[in-house]
Amino acid sequence: MPAPQAPVSVSGAVARRRSVRAFLDRPVSRATVEDILRRAARAPSGGNLQPWVVRVVDGAEIAALKALMRRQVAGMPDGEPPVPAFCPDALKPPYLARRRRNGEILYGALGIDRDDAEARRAWIAGNFQFFGAPVGVMLFAERQSTPYQWVDIGIYLQTVLLLLCEAGLDSCPQADWAMYEATVKQALGAPPDLTLVCGIAIGYADPDSPGNAVRTERDDPLAAYAIR
Ligand SMILES: Cc1cc2nc3c(=O)[nH]c(=O)nc-3n(C[C@H](O)[C@H](O)[C@H](O)COP(=O)(O)O)c2cc1C
Prior knowledge:
The chain has 228 residues and is of the alpha+beta class. It has one domain (10-83, 128-214): 3-Layer(aba) Sandwich (NADH Oxidase).
């Protein structure tokens, strides 16, 4: 068993949380994850709609989903149409530069060449194995949601990530799961009026994975007016 961690402040969790993309083969208590998902619902939401819908996947179910996704991704590597747009096609400055820099940092750490499409594709496919995490969460929105409910769901997501951090758990939010919304929804028996926002991979970081050593950069949000 690892040594218990010192209690983490909100500031500590905000600073320490990062996206982890390789996990140890070490079990995670479903009860702990469920407790965090419930406590995160103290997050604010417009009109207190609490428009987040979550589904935990672990054990035999996550094993079956990973096996199914291996087949799906092999057959349709670019996702199932209609693949949602994660951001505008033509990203304006400074967003394009930030996205490129993020890729450079991560792929650089992993030793994946910028032009090696095959290696990149194989790496991205790891998303659909929850990067080896033993527990996953699927986060849904109502299809009829407006952007404000998506704001609420984003706040809920970050609250979940921070509580996971406080509990000594690592995570990665994964919008890429929405590329296979139909398969995920069918596999989990999700109602038709829900739309898949993202998955969350949950587990313990593999300290030997070079990708997990990455520390992403941030620009000063107060300077945002000036630099756009
Ligand atoms: C809503 C959302 C969706 C994301 N989707 C993915 C994803 O599909 N795959 C992935 O590897 N990372 C994904 N990320 C992680 C981001 O790449 C990451 O948060 C960003 O690069 C900043 O790094 P950090 O989380 O380590 O601070 C997502 C993050 C958010 C907030």
